[in-house]
Design a protein that fits this description.
By secondary structure, the chain is α+β, with helices and mostly antiparallel strands. It is built from eight helices and 13 strands. Helix 2 packs antiparallel against helix 6. It starts with a strand and ends in a 7-residue tail after the last strand.
Length: 291
């Protein structure tokens, strides 16, 4: 008799989840799983068929009122057999009573609507080598508008300032996750500072494909362009990917003006009203997998 059970993810499972996500073309970061485990150690679930992993999902709790669904994958060998939906139901039960968000790929958005999710905006992945002197909404190039702010190593700033700045773009505080996300080996985190205030933050991480930048926050397109160019210097080939919300037209215009092209799209969806975040300064979300 076939036995299907749902368990928490092991360390080995986390590596397998990353591999499955790569096979789906999602290009997760090489070390993302370590930061994800910090966000919510019990937030990753695996469906096992006779002991073997066949499906996965993350259902990560943030604070007391928010949760995020990600990594929802059933292995191709078991799709259409009901195991994925059973895992989905367990994930939603774990986040019961919270506002829940996710980034839904195009072919699954109708299914998410049936579970009560409604689209808020689309996150569009822009990819390529940012053009030097490229134009954006205000002709923002690598150095345009740089007078008046300084780009520094984010690790040199008080962490309390970084965490407070990040909170402006996310529904709940996520101090432990942010510290891991910025500090993992191989990553570069840069901040734009003006008059003692943080006016931009960007993190780049190595991936199996294009190095992904996220988050990318900036008070102006000029700051976003400056951060993006500086971050791109920390890649082996200059190729970057940024998941930009189309609800911020300045972000999509800037990335297109720098020569990056759309390669992937997912709808940011919520089970209730979209949380209030500073969309006008959000040029790239942190992660399609964990928000």
């Amino acid at each position: 008799m076939t036995v299907f059970e749902i368990t928490g993810a092991s360390i080995a499972d986390m590596e397998l989840i990353r591999t499955w996500a790569d096979e789906e073309g999602w290009n997760p970061g090489d070390s993302d799983r370590f930061a994800f485990a910090v966000a919510d150690p019990a937030g990753f679930l695996v469906g096992r068929l006779d002991g073997e992993p066949v499906a996965c999902v993350s259902a990560v709790r943030y604070g007391s009122g928010f949760g995020f669904i990600g990594f929802y994958i059933a292995h191709p060998s078991v799709r259409g057999q009901g195991y994925g939906i059973r895992l989905w139901q367990a994930a939603m039960e774990r986040l019961d009573g919270r506002l829940v968000g996710l980034d839904g790929v195009v072919d699954q958005q109708d299914n998410y609507r049936k579970s009560g999710f409604r689209p808020a905006w689309n996150n569009v992945r822009y990819e390529g080598v940012p053009r030097a002197g490229g134009t954006g909404p205000a002709g923002a190039g690598a150095g345009a508008g740089a007078v008046g702010f300084e780009v520094v190593d984010a690790a040199s700033l008080p962490f309390t300032l970084l965490a407070a700045y990040d909170r402006r773009f996310f529904p709940e505080s996520r101090h432990a996750f942010l510290a891991a996300w910025i500090g993992l080996p191989g990553r570069t985190a840069l901040a734009a500072v003006r008059g003692g205030r943080i006016e931009g933050l960007g993190v780049i991480r190595p991936c199996s494909g294009a190095s992904r930048i996220g988050p990318l926050y900036a008070a102006t397109p000029e700051i976003a362009a400056a951060l993006l160019h500086r971050l791109a210097e920390h890649t082996p080939d200059g190729v970057v990917a940024v998941d930009a919300p189309d609800a911020n037209p300045a972000a999509t215009a800037l990335l297109a003006g720098l020569g990056l092209v759309p390669t992937f799209e997912a709808a940011r969806m919520y089970t209730g009203p979209a949380p209030e975040v500073e969309l006008a300064a959000l040029y790239g979300v942190t992660s399609l997998e964990l928000g």
